[in-house]
What we know:
Layout: E1 7-8, E2 15-24, E3 27-32, E4 37-41, E5 52-58, E6 69-74, E7 85-88, E8 93-95
Antiparallel strand pairs: 1-8, 2-3, 3-4, 4-8, 5-6, 6-7
Amino acid sequence: MGYTDHARVTRVTDYRTHSWxxxxxxxxxxxxxxxxxxxxxxxxxxRALSEVQAIVAQKLGSxxxxxDKFLVRTYGTLTTxxxxxxxxxxxxxxxxxxxxx
Length: 101
């Protein structure tokens, strides 16, 4: 089952970083509180996503907005912050499940 057209949103208040899907190094899909999803593209390829152990959103406020960022931890990475990459978001798009005909 696919998704219908994506509507750009300005913020997502309730999402789960433990429940996300890798699309490619340019975008991920996050699940939201109401079982919907949102696509989060990055402003540049985030190559660390292909070997990710954990991600965490670094937000300016209480909600995830365009131009916030995700910190990515890969396996075997030892840094002072514990994260090996910082991936800046470009936009956020609401995804709705397409109705099967």
